[in-house]
Design goal:
The chain contains three helices and eight strands. By secondary structure, it is α+β, with helices and mostly antiparallel strands. The radius of gyration is 28 Å and the shape is globular.
Length: 203
């Protein structure tokens, strides 16, 4: 009888220890989850800076959207529409080409257009979310002196600039803007694609 009671007490004690350990584990997991949530929320509320922009949640969100759109394009899920123009007798920087990629619902996802002058050229590739908002602009520019650069503009879900960065790839530099003009960040790609050009359209 004494041995039975000892075994029962030992089992009860073991069960109690397991319950305490389980409670501590749950509490620890909850604490870690809460800490991660607070940390992410705090980072999201921080201003985007040179130090944090690469991993800032708003930039990561844009980058994820960009990759998703690129994958859809590469998989052939987007419809390509193109217009070309003869700009030899036109003013500098009129569009040489306009390309619009739309999804299965007819919504614009990528708008690409380029143009230049006798000494420089700019190509702009713009990416749009499911709501038709411009979220990312990738600009490539080059000049006669060997300058080549890339310029990236990140935009919020409301379509407002949140960050932009320019990288000189080659050459001494040129008079390209360091803050990209809002007029070139097309908010209505369907209209821009269909707008009449002062240059003759070619087939």
């Amino acid at each position: 009888m004494g041995a039975a009671r000892l075994l029962q007490r030992a089992a009860t004690r073991t069960l109690g220890i397991e319950r305490i350990a389980s409670h501590k584990m749950k509490t620890s997991t909850l604490f870690i989850g809460l800490w991660l949530f607070v940390s992410c929320a705090a980072l999201a509320s921080e201003a985007i800076t040179e130090k944090n922009w690469v991993n800032h949640p708003e930039i990561v969100d844009v980058r994820t959207l960009y990759q998703k759109i690129k994958e859809s394009k590469d998989a052939g899920h987007l419809k390509r529409n193109e217009r070309k123009f003869d700009t030899t007798s036109c003013e500098p920087y009129e569009d040489d080409v306009r390309v619009l990629f739309t999804d299965q619902k007819g919504k614009p996802r990528i708008y690409y257009y380029e143009g230049g002058s006798d000494d420089s050229m700019v190509r702009r590739e713009l990416f749009y979310d499911d709501n038709g908002k411009l979220r990312f602009a990738f600009v490539r520019a080059g000049a006669y002196n060997g300058t080549k650069l890339e310029h990236r503009v990140y935009l919020s879900k409301a379509g407002k600039k949140i960050w932009e960065i320019q990288k000189l790839l080659e050459g001494p530099g040129y008079t390209f803007p360091t803050v990209w003009p809002d007029t070139e960040l097309i908010q209505n790609p369907l209209q821009a694609f269909n707008d009449k050009s002062p240059c003759k359209e070619t087939k």
